Amino acid sequence: MKQRDTHAFVSSSYSCRQFNTRTNIFKFLTQSISFQDRQKSTESITSSSTTHARAAVSTNNDNKLEAILNNLGMSISQWKIHNNASSSLTSKRRRRKTPKTTLEEEYKLSNRQRRGQLSAHDSVKDHIQERIKVKAVHAASSLDTKHMLSIFDKSHHPVNHVFGKTFLIVQLPSLDQAQPRFVAMFNFGSIVFFNVSEQDIAYFLDQSKVYSKNPIPRGLERKEFFELAIAPYMRNEAYTNSVCAVVKNMNVHNVSIVSNIMAQTVALDSHNDTVDELLSTFESINDTVRTTAKFTSLEKEQLFKIVAQNNSLLIDMIAKLGIKNKSDYAWNLTQYERLHEGMRHEFEIDPRFEHIEFKLNMIQDNAKFFLEILQNQKTDTLEWIIIILITFECVLMILEMSGLGPGLLADSEVATMIKEYIHKK
Predict the structure, then answer these.
(1) Other CB atoms within 10 A of residue 261 CB
(2) Under a CB-based contact definition with an 8 Å cutoff, are residues 135 and 209 in contact?
(3) Nearest to 38 by CA among 12, 80, 74
(4) Residue 110: other Cβ atoms inside 10 A
(5) CB-based contact 164:256 (threshold 8 Å)
(6) Domain DUF155, which positions (predicted)?
(7) What is the DSSP letter of 32?
């Protein structure tokens, strides 16, 4: 009987397959499932199946594993859920390196990951109704959002608008009722367009220069692209994946959160370019000092400008961009918090800010070193001037005490000046 039971062991090993175009998720491994385990309780069955059947199952091997698990009194879906056999993203997406995958695949992956199981999901086509293109542009160092409403003429008359502390959101007349159009403008110079044509984008960028400070020439602006997917029948709150942000509807709250992150990301790109220019200038100063061991007046002026701009950039990122602040809607309405955090994670806001901050701190430390050298040089010069004046005064006192002074300098103008000086003393 024991020998028969021994031959009844089912031993199989399943090779690793690519279950999805995006991930190599599961290794299939089923080993030594004994028929004696049938009479055990559900907990012991679960423990045994967990020990001897790891990872999830490919399509070709589902039938075999299902037959084994049926003998144990467990369904394949229960085994998958217990073994945490849900699809997951194997690697974090780097910015601007979107994988070659469709929106449908991304939507399914995100839902499976959220629910923690491989249960069948409704087709994404039943959920995603519209896809809105989003484009962010960093147009200037700052914008006067209080007066930006005046750039909208009769053909672009706003349907609605919302003022915030740092932004202005304008809803434009819709060309299609199913696809509303929005423009979000921020006081730190970024403009975000939702479902706006390239022709209208060019028009708004040209008009915005009237109320902007230090506008960036056309074609040199930092830009970012994204998509907003509208899924009215989705059962959970809004979320973000590497392809798009999925929301139930396109309202001011969703537009505010998405546009805020998009505006921050292009502003960070622009600030990063400025910091790189500062590093390049600082490198040239280092080369000159290394070669000549001296500071010229031009290099001193450049150094002071670098220090001032360095401090200005750090203040702008923290105060104007609000990198460390949470959106008001995400703070007050919990259903929008997931969208806000997902967007921040997708565009790597915190790591990029820390990278720029590291560069700024490096510039600041090196600038402090050179400023200390300049201060020491200035101190040395003043000390020598004081020494010369003291020496001159000592010489005059010696001449006066010896009686030789009036005879040597009797008829000279210098003598007259010296006498007046001594008289005052």
Answers:
(1) 25
(2) no
(3) 74
(4) 20
(5) yes
(6) 183-356
(7) E
Listed in sequence order, the residues at least 6 apart from 8 whose beta carbon sits closer than 8 Å to its beta carbon are 34, 35
Along the chain (425 residues), what's the average pLDDT of each consecutive run of 10 residues?
39 36 34 38 40 40 59 53 39 41 45 38 56 93 87 75 88 79 93 93 90 89 91 80 85 90 94 91 84 78 85 85 75 77 90 92 86 80 88 82 65 62 62
Residue 389 tokens, joined: 């004046």
User: b/e string for 411-422 if b means 16 or more Cβ within 10 A?
Assistant: eeeeeeebbeee
pLDDT at 287: 84
Residue count of the chain, please give it.
425
Token duo for residue 78: 């229960």
Report the C-alpha gap between 401 and 404 in whole angstroms: 8
What is the model's pLDDT at position 73?
57
Q: Is 184 helix (H, G, I), strand (E, B) or coil?
A: strand
Distance CA 290, CA 30 (A): 67
Query: For residues 213 and 148, is the Cβ–Cβ distance under 8 A?
Result: no
> Phi/psi class of residue 202: alpha, beta or left (left: φ > 0; alpha: ψ in -120 to 50)?
alpha
pLDDT of 71 reads 60
> What pLDDT does 410 receive?
57
Cα–Cα distance, 254 to 262 (Å, whole number): 12
Strands 222-230 and 245-247: parallel
- pLDDT, position 286: 84
Contact 356, 271 (CB under 8 A): yes
pLDDT of residue 284: 86
pLDDT recorded at residue 158: 75
Spell out the residues 6+ positions from residue 390 whose beta carbon is closer than 8 angstroms to its own.
none
What HEC string does 225-283 produce? Answer: EEEEEECCCCCCCCEECCCCEEECCCCHHHHHHHHHHHHHHHHHHHHHHHHHHHHHHHH
Structure tokens at 205: 């960028």
